[in-house]
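[[Encoded backbone]]
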Amino acid sequence: MNTPDINTLFSQANRFLQAGQIPQAIKICKKILAVSPGHPDGYNLMGILFSERKDYRQALHYFRLALKAVPEEPLFLLNTAKAHKNLRQFNDAIDSFRKIITINPNLHFSYAGLGSVYLEQGNYEDAIKYFQTAIRLAPDNSDHHYNLSLAFQKNNNHDM
């Protein structure tokens, strides 16, 4: 019996993910982890799949396994932060986004992530500050501009 090529399995899982066929993608991802136990990208992909199912606790479990293997990988930290945010574990989300900034202060998505957490918490001044930094780093990102305008709008309504 041939061992499936890991790259082929990742391609298959990603195709299923893009097609919205999450159960099939999870099945392939389990094969990846069977062929290569402890593969951090396999854990990360599994976390993404569970995030797609909105099972953020299970997603967080897999993102933590990925981080255990590669503790300072910004993508794994980003996915962990997003899962924490979706679980409304804001302090943990903030810690993860800040760790990304410590590792690489030029990644706009970490500032935008912090801004979104602060926006959700009603801390509009900090949200504005972090969205502005995200825009400085990625001026063409329309999401950052939209979120900044939303934070300004909410801040103005809050001050009234």
Q: What stands out?
A: Residues 142-159 form the longest helix (18 residues).
